[in-house]
Amino acid sequence: MSHYSKILFSALFVLSTLSLSANAAVEFTTAVATTACNATGNIISAGKEDCRATPSTFTTQIYEIGLCTAHPYGAAKTNATFDASTCVVIYTDAAPAAVNLAAAIGTNTALPGTASAPAQGTYGFPYIKLGTDFSVAGSFTNTPAGGSATTYYSRGAGNAVDTTGPAVAQTDSLKNFDKNGDGSTCTSGYLGAAVVGGTMDGFITDASFTRSNSGEVTAGICDKSARLAAVMNLSAPFTVTSQTYAVNFNFVLTDYGVQFIDTNNNLANAEEFGSAPFAGYFAVLNAD
Questions:
Q1: pLDDT, position 205
Q2: Which residues pair with 152 in a beta bridge?
Q3: pTM
């Protein structure tokens, strides 16, 4: 249960226990490297349990985008609260409508919220705040060695795939990164996913972007699980100057955002479908 889809979920009796729970640390897991699905041969590469694909639907809510000079959850990523003291907000929408980012692959899309020019400075930790519900759909065609082409489709109910199509959207709710695989603790952090220009960390939080500690979990769901904060760790921080007129976040969904999964140790076939981490990068636009 180490791959990403296994962490998706659809939702003290004595003083000493309460005290221990209150002092428990936040918990995180380290991102597992994944590969794109293969069009020929085994659909899933050797040594892997799943493969990434391009979604036909990837719908989410975008609450805020900003830039920080220090990681808002601390250098060790173990802070429970989002420290905005080194951050500037460049986009905000208090009640965002869901937007289908897959429909805009290869194009620019203007979001309906309020955009603001960032203060001049050098920023190494951009972030984006999202909802935790993702509506996803996708398909992928694979031709195994010596066999005929098979197209795998999301079917919109459960995670099992279909081979007759069309691809139907399903809603995946990200409520626990579930380090132990049994829902016994809240794993609120997912650290070090490789993206263009660095790595990305994900944090499951409440609406104020505070993380649950490891003991704050009910029926496998983190008690604070209304939002997802994604923070980039840039290999080369960028600088906003007086010539900067825009800072854009570019979602990367080609070969990201959904996955097909092997559940029976046969890498030639995919048995399940689910959402997967997106990738992205920030672009600074300067006047000539």
A1: 98
A2: 140
A3: 0.86
pLDDT at position 230 over 80: yes
pLDDT over 70 for what percent of the chain? 92
Backbone φ and ψ for 281, nearest 5 degrees, come out as -155, 160
CB atoms within 10 A of CB 32: 14
Question: Strands 62-68 and 87-92: what pairing?
Answer: antiparallel
Query: What is the total residue count of the chain?
Result: 288
Pick from 12, 58, 2: which is nearest to 33 by CA?
2
Interatomic CA distance for residues 117 and 244, integer angstroms: 9
Residue spans of the domains in the chain: they are 4-286
Query: Which one has a higher pLDDT value, 163 or 158?
Result: 163
Q: What is the pLDDT of residues 169-204, one digit of tens each?
A: 999 999 999 999 999 999 999 999 988 889 999 999
pLDDT tens across 9-54, in order?
222 222 233 333 344 799 999 998 889 999 999 999 999 999 999 9
CA distance 19 to 59: 40
Supply 242's token pair.
Answer: 């007086």
Q: Cα–Cα distance between 229 and 63 in angstroms, integer? A: 10
CA atoms lying within 13 Å on the CB side of residue 213 = 9
Tokens, residue 155: 């079917």
